[in-house]
Each structure stands twice: as structure tokens, then as C-alpha cells.
Design goal:
The chain is α/β, with parallel strands linked by helices. Helix content is 37%, strand content 19%. Helix 2 (66-93) packs parallel to helix 5 and helix 4 (119-125) runs parallel beside helix 8 (189-201). It folds into two domains: 1-84 and 112-289, no CATH class; 298-426, no CATH class. It is built from 14 helices and 15 strands. A hairpin with a 5-residue loop joins strand 8 (203-213) and strand 9. It has a ten-stranded mixed beta sheet, sandwiched between helices. The model is unreliable at 1-5, 8-15, 44-61, 174-180 and 245-265 (pLDDT under 50).
């Protein structure tokens, strides 16, 4: 039997999950490898120092075998070019706008519904946040596969990742099709995207665990037995998905970085144990540990009625800072009323593009809205000319024009950047 070379990793620590002091398996070694290989954190190696230790101190290192360096270097050359441009546009040039307009007393707990893999935008807007929760249909992803990929699989997976999250690290927005496609990458696209956000903002991971929500909405971290049991349940489905994927490669439908065939939403090719992920992180050189959780959940009314654990979880946070952008105008629709009600009942301050809460709902809840940039109609044709589209057009007309020098979320139908702040009336 022919032996296929696999990704060779030299590490001081074992690249396997270990028990976390607070419960659950900690996949930090896999996170650090993804941070280096997929997210391009560090030119040669990613720090693997323990939580609370300074990154300036002597740290353990993860390095890549020379056989793999060319492939990773090619990937990181493309990624770093985009991240450099993104930092300059958003973390530097746009910093003044956020410093001026985000209140200093806004809660440090941030909730970002319809957030996809977009931790990077939350870090741009709220760099001092201590807890960020993103929510979307996309699931976190299995972090264990990277170290077992062949060189060809690594090349294809990294190329796919560049295609799938290219829009996010260019303009802070991505398409549903790209996000769906990421569920079939051998790399965990969502986790890789989150780690890329950390790299862009100058942060590093210190732990990574997976969890579920119990009936009270509390976080329950998954132990090895939980993950093994879910792996066993999902194994047949995953094997079929991988065979279908392999056939697509053989037929030439998926080549290089062009991994975006037309399709409807696709189920993931990994165990559902890896749906919800928590990444604890810190600013490089600092000791303060912050928390990002991503929850894979359908935010439609029908699903939330059957599965209320998410809303119970969110409500326990009290008043929070909200972020909504690129949300396909779902909050305009009648069948997303539950999440809209949660937002209006719990926002202390909210930043959104026009896919946020429409003016009529905001006004009824005692909110006021301040507009920035220019809005002449919805970006997506199906939402143009609707009641809520007209409301937003009128809202912009009534207010003094305030410049916005960058895109953050959807543009309008004329490709004009715009944002709206929603806040309780004083």
C-alpha cells in the first residue's frame, strides 16, 4: 500500500485535546496549529504559551516541516496581503469613527446575530469587548483534521478557505454561498475565520472548547465521551458527504481556489459535536483573557419556538451591545420576530447596516436611530421598494447627512456605504 505523506508538525506539546481546568476538552493545540497554518499568525511559528503568560516571554513553538512550508507560505502571502490592507482600512483609518461614535460606557458584552464567521468586524468595532457572541447557521467545525491532511488536501483546503472567506477579510462581509461552502472544507472554516480575526486584531488564542446549551440556556462544555458519542452518530453521514465531495473533485467540478459551485445550503461534513465553539483569547503581550463564543443556531421563529435555549442563554447576559450587518434583511421579515424582539428588549446600544431593525419596530420599542453615510434603497433586489425599505429611505432623508468613509456591512442599491445606530431614547 502506498504511504501518503501527512502534515508534519513539530511541537513541544502534544497536538491532542486535553482536559480544561473548568471542564470540557481543550483543543488549544489544534487551535494554535490552525492559527499558524490557516490564519497565518506569526511568520514562522505561533506562540503556545499558557494562558496568563506574556507572549514576550520564552514560549513553546509550533513549526512546520520544510516539505509543507512552500504551500503554507503561498497561502500566507495571499492572506497577509489582504489582512494588511484590512488593518489599514478598518483598524487604523476607521478607528476614529468608532472611537467617536461608540459610547465609552457601552456594555463590553457584545451579541452579533447573523454573524457568520465575522469575529473580525466585532473586534474592529469593539476592541475592548470582554465577551463576544456570534450566531449563525454555520457551525464551528472540526479542528482535528489539519494535522492529518495530505499535501494535496492541504493545498486544496487552503485554496478553498481563501475563496470562502475572501470577502470577509477584504470588506468585512461574505456571501451565504461562501459560508455554506466552508462547511465542506477539510479545515474548520468558521474557526479558521475567527482565528484570522484574532491575527488581524493582534490577538492570540489561549483555549478552545466546544459546548452545547442546556434547557436553561447554560453553557455545557463537551467532554471526550460526549464528542466520541456524537462522532459515532454522525460517522455514516460524514462518510457519505466525503465520498460525494471526492467524486466532485474527480469530475473536475472543484479545482484550486474556485470552490464555489452553485448549490443550496449544504450540511456540514463534520460531527455536530463541533457546532458551538468557545475561543478564549488575549492581546499579544497582555494577560487579560477575553471570550468569544460562536453558536450555530437557526434564528427563525419556527426553530426558536422548538429550541428556546439560545434566547434563554442570551437573555441571561442582560443589556448588551449589539452588532448586525450583512443579515440578508431577515430582521425585516415577520418570521424573524422572536430574535428581533430579543434585540429590542436587550440592546443598550446597537450598530447595524440597513439589515438591522427597521424604524417602525425601533420606534415602537422606544428607540431612536441615528444615520451615517447614504442610503437610497436595499442592496438585495427582493427587499427593494418594501415597506421597511421605504422607512429607511425616509429615515435618512429626515436626518442631517453625516459622512461615512468606509464600508461596514452591506452597501445600498447604489453601492453607497451606510450605518445606523439604534439606542434607547434618553
Amino acid at each position: 500500500m502506498r504511504t501518503v505523506a501527512r502534515l508534519a508538525v513539530i511541537a513541544v506539546v502534544a497536538s491532542t485535546a486535553t482536559a480544561h481546568a473548568d471542564g470540557g476538552l481543550d483543543f488549544i493545540d489544534d487551535a494554535k496549529l490552525l492559527y499558524r497554518v490557516a490564519a497565518c499568525g506569526g511568520s514562522d511559528a505561533a506562540s503556545t504559551g499558557s494562558a496568563g503568560a506574556s507572549s514576550d516571554a520564552k514560549a513553546e513553538r509550533i513549526s512546520i516541516d520544510s516539505k509543507w512550508q512552500k504551500t503554507v507560505d503561498k497561502h500566507c502571502k495571499a492572506i497577509n496581503k489582504k489582512l494588511t490592507a484590512f488593518r489599514k482600512q478598518y483598524f487604523e483609518k476607521a478607528r476614529e469613527w468608532f472611537t467617536t461614535n461608540v459610547p465609552s460606557d457601552a456594555p463590553k458584552t457584545v451579541v452579533y446575530p447573523f454573524g457568520g464567521g465575522d469575529l473580525i468586524s466585532a473586534l474592529v468595532a469593539f476592541p475592548d469587548a470582554t465577551e463576544i457572541t456570534t450566531i449563525s447557521l454555520e457551525l464551528g467545525g472540526d479542528p482535528r483534521r489539519l494535522k492529518n491532511l495530505t499535501l494535496k488536501e492541504l493545498e486544496v483546503s487552503l485554496g478553498g478557505l481563501r475563496a470562502e472567506i475572501g470577502g470577509l477579510i477584504s470588506v468585512g462581509s461574505n456571501t451565504t454561498e461562501n459560508l455554506s461552502q466552508g462547511q465542506h472544507n477539510e479545515l474548520p472554516a468558521q474557526v479558521s475565520s475567527f482565528l484570522m480575526g484574532l491575527v488581524a486584531g493582534g490577538y492570540e488564542p489561549v483555549s478552545m472548547r466546544y459546548f452545547k446549551l442546556d434547557d436553561k440556556g447554560d453553557v455545557v462544555y463537551l467532554e471526550k465521551a460526549d464528542i466520541d458519542a456524537q462522532d459515532a452518530i454522525d460517522s455514516k453521514k460524514i462518510e457519505k458527504t466525503k465520498k460525494d465531495r471526492a467524486k466532485a473533485y474527480e469530475d473536475g467540478n472543484l479545482v484550486g481556489e474556485n470552490l464555489q459551485p452553485k448549490h443550496d445550503w449544504q450540511s456540514p461534513n463534520f460531527s455536530l459535536a463541533f457546532s458551538n465553539v468557545e475561543i478564549q483569547y488575549r492581546k499579544v503581550g497582555e494577560t487579560t483573557v477575553r471570550t468569544h463564543r460562536h453558536i450555530g443556531w437557526n434564528l427563525g421563529d419556527a426553530w426558536l419556538k422548538l429550541h428556546p435555549q439560545l434566547i434563554r442563554h442570551l437573555e441571561k447576559k442582560g443589556d448588551v451591545t449589539m452588532l448586525v450587518k450583512g443579515a440578508s434583511y431577515l430582521l425585516w421579515k415577520s418570521n424573524f420576530s422572536r430574535v428581533r424582539e430579543y434585540i429590542l428588549d436587550n440592546l443598550a446600544w446597537m450598530l447595524s447596516d440597513s439589515t438591522g431593525v427597521p424604524p417602525s419596530y425601533a420606534k415602537s420599542a422606544g428607540m431612536v436611530q441615528d444615520t451615517f453615510g447614504i442610503y437610497g434603497g436595499a442592496f438585495l433586489p427582493d427587499s427593494q421598494g418594501t415597506k421597511h425599505d421605504e422607512e429607511f429611505i425616509e429615515l435618512w432623508k429626515k436626518q442631517k447627512k453625516k459622512k461615512l468613509g468606509f464600508r461596514f456591512g452591506y452597501v445600498d442599491m447604489n453601492k453607497q456605504a451606510h450605518l445606523v445606530i439604534t439606542r434607547p431614547k434618553k
